[in-house]
Write a structure and sequence with these properties.
Blueprint lengths: L4 H12 L5 E7 L3 H17 L3 E7 L3 H13 L6 E5 L3 H5 L4 E2 L1 H4 L10 H6 L10 E6 L1 E6 H6 L9 H13 L6 E3 L3 H11 L6 H4 L15 H13 L3 E3 L8 H6 L5 E5 L3 H8 L5 E5 L14 E8 L4 H15 L1 H11 L7 H8 L9 H10 L15 H16 L5 H22 L7
Parallel strand pairs: 1-2, 1-3, 7-8, 7-9
Antiparallel strand pairs: 3-11, 4-11, 5-11, 6-9, 6-10
Helix pairs in contact: 1-2, 1-14, 2-15, 15-16, 18-19
Amino acid sequence: MRISILAAAAALMAGACSAQAANIEFWYGNTGVAETAIQAECAAFNSAQSAHHITCVGQGSYEVSMQKAIAAFRAKNHPVLIQFFDAGTLDLMLSDAVEPVEDVLPDVKWDNYIAGARAYYETSGGKLFAQPYNASTLLFYTNKTELEKAGVMKTPTTWEEIIAAAGKLKASGHACPFVTDGDTWRVLEQFSARHGLPIASKHNGYDGLDAEYVFNTTFVAKHLQNLVDWRKEGLVRLGTDTKAGNFTAAFNTGECAMMENSSGSYTASVKAFDGKYEMSVGMAPMYEGHERHNTFVGGASIYVMKGHSKAEIEGAKAFLDFVRDPKQQMSFTSATGYVPVTNDVMEAIAKSGEANPPKYATAAVGIDSMNQPRTPDTRGIRLGFYVQFRQVFMEETQKAFAGEQTMQVALDNAKKRGDELLRRFEQTYKGVTLR
């Protein structure tokens, strides 16, 4: 990974030189390409200065990292910095285990963060609680080579165009025109956001813990029923329907021609396609007649945990400054496909003379997608026990895909079970007012 050591060291100098040396830990939940990039970033930080030393520890997954961090906090042996994913935001905000990053670093120009990345991790009052880090959003990928073989010369941008293209692919003998896994993040959260639909009342929980799920009454229900019908017609496949057994792998091998996936999957797809296929990447598709709104930020952010010495906090601040640097973000984007999180990165890419290389393909489209017009229902999700709800949603909708119940029944069941989780969470934090 290319790192600008001098630029990074200069950014650190003011805060680090006078600080006492500290050894700090940063726990993260990524594996694969992202983990390699994180470890490279940590090594670069240690090489860029000598005032602090960071040890970056992988926990295997976001969920495991979250569980371990809370347990470690209770045992008072927790790290200074912890990477938490989007779904755990409210749980962590109310845990009393972290300091709002704006309080730790009051002089940072936090309004430089792209709106779509900042809003998700803000309090209801607008204070940023965590520093957005490995930001992803939902994008639309096509195998242009396979589409053109089937006579589809224009990349689809709407669901209507996708299904028309899928029909041509099927007619030409293609067994898997479009593939998905039906994941909650893709088919509920990101679909609702860009179509301007609420997932729950109280603006997805930002206005209070007494929110209730409403997705079963929105256009989401029609879309999911469409996926069921299109699958029956052979136009859409689930990952489990494919030879690869995984929707991303099925696209990367050329088995499937179109998919919606995280920007974080881009680098692996490019590598798999090299010398075999041409790929397009664009914003996730809309239904015709619906105004496009912002997609949610995915991935994770970095929190500063309470209970550490001044020297350790200084080390944490220095590392957060380091990863915020535009050139550092450029390196991370080119290595992983994750989207830059500050507005000045696109300017830095333009000045670098590398505005159009494939390695930055997700940067412009991802930022553009997250910066689309926002409504109070597309700010983010602020719902308790949301990690557990994602699993509930998957359990119920997968039953519908399997023909065990209708999709509407699945959504109604998911709403009922989800509301039960919300009421438990509300009771747990009875009397707490969201900030």
